Amino acid sequence: MRQYPHLYIDGRWTEPTEPREIELIDPTREEVFARVALGSAADVDRAVAAARRAFESFSTTSADDRIALIDRIIDVYESHIDEFSELIAREVGIPVSNHAQVTGPAEHMRVARDLLREYPFEARVGGAIVRREPVGVCALISPWNWPIQTGVIKLIYALAAGCTIVSKPSLNSAGSGVLLAQVLHEAGVPPGVFNLVSGTGREVGDALSHHPGVDMISFTGSTDAGKVVGAAAAGTVKRVCLELGGKSANIVLPDADLENAARWNIQRCFFNAGQSCHAPSRMLVHESQVEQVVPFLVDEAQRFRLGDPLESSTTMGPVVSAAQFKSIRDHIQSGLDEGARLVTGGLERPDGLNQGYFVQPTVFTGVTPDMTIAREEVFGPVLAVLTYRDEDDALRIANDSPFGLGGYVFGGQRENARRVVNGLRAGRISFNGAATDSYTPMGGYKQSGIGRSMGSLGLEEYLEVKSVYGFEDEAQALPTLFG
Predict the structure, then answer these.
(1) Is 277 marked active-site?
(2) b/e code 20-59 from CB counts within 10 Å (16+ = b)
(3) How far apart are CA 242 and CA 276, in angstroms?
(4) Which of 303, 296, 304, 299 is nearest to 262 (CA)?
(5) 385: phi then psi, degrees, rounded to nearest 5
(6) Which of 306, 308, 258 shows the shortest CA–CA distance to 283?
(7) Catalytic residue among 91, 163, 243, 460
(8) What does the pLDDT look like over 166-216, one tens digit per residue?
(9) Active-site residue, from 138, 163, 241, 277
(10) Is 138 a catalytic residue?
(11) What is the pTM of this model?
């Protein structure tokens, strides 16, 4: 039994104001494997006060000082990679074979560090100086599906900007949040610059969202929860950065390599057991070609090796919790009830896995745009295949969604594919499976969010803008902001 009895406030491990804890369930074994401390609004007050005190000095540190700090964090983090990998396998069922979950955070740290070396915190517009300064105390609320990487992206850009932090990890992945706090402690982050308060969204998340001492809140999670955070933050006019839900479409054009498109879609959609906000969970295929892609979809879906995430041969673990398991199965049932055609997977547990929250990789064809599995974010290994008549019809179907986080296009003729790419209303689009870039911004249109993370635009989420007049001579020595 693992014990996480402390919060991290003002550079010290401390017990919560009220002695409370919650049990964490191993989703593979369906048994308690850890207990974690539950913070309260009183603990949020303590953490915010510590962050406000630390902001006075940390906000004035030089970029070189913050670069050196990030380098120390990278070194300590990399010494704990195996520990992180084993822990998230136990917490949320992410297989140890999923190396991106633990190696990706270090890469994002390096990107933030390298941007910091060249970012112009002061620039010239005419004879004026436009100055960027840290926004203040930032509340960072992270999800469980990328339990380390999402938290790292938030905190490393906040630190790069010169902000101080109160972090709340998801309770499902609270142990990895504690380990990340330990990394920052070992790296010598000054007291009060980073604080960790684990707890429920209803109590700790709500206290952070309403707190007058918090200047900015960055939240990643469901759209419904993001609406609550945004409404609460409005009371004190906080800056809000939200990365929310998605129902991303992959438009497969008639001249695409159908096998490549189908196999890639399965791998990308079912990565992380489908628990990814950018998953291409709607695949749009021309009505004359849908039967050609089905064998590739089925074959690729059946290649996943389900099992214990601690085993190196496993490529898909369980979903995170009993509640998530039920929600996914309810969505599969809705597909059956509403007349979609099940071509692989389904409601039954995978063969030989009678314990654990395991869901079969599931593919439906014959899905229409009004069906539940075509409109709601399932957040599990379930793919809905829809058909379209022509490109305009494909764009209409793809954009007919309250979400706009990601999008994908497969095609042969690049000029025509670019027209389709430009027509998608989403924040990040990939053509023919092109890899994303950690220097580029990530975020969504519509109800998929507000603001951006990663890269220079991600850094600017943590910066205020100040215009300064009367220092024309100093301004002439600065880079020009607008050409």
Answers:
(1) yes
(2) eeeebbbbbeeeebbbbbbbbbebbebbbbbbbbbbeebb
(3) 16
(4) 296
(5) -100, 120
(6) 258
(7) 243
(8) 999 999 999 999 999 999 999 999 999 999 999 999 999 999 999 999 999
(9) 277
(10) no
(11) 0.97
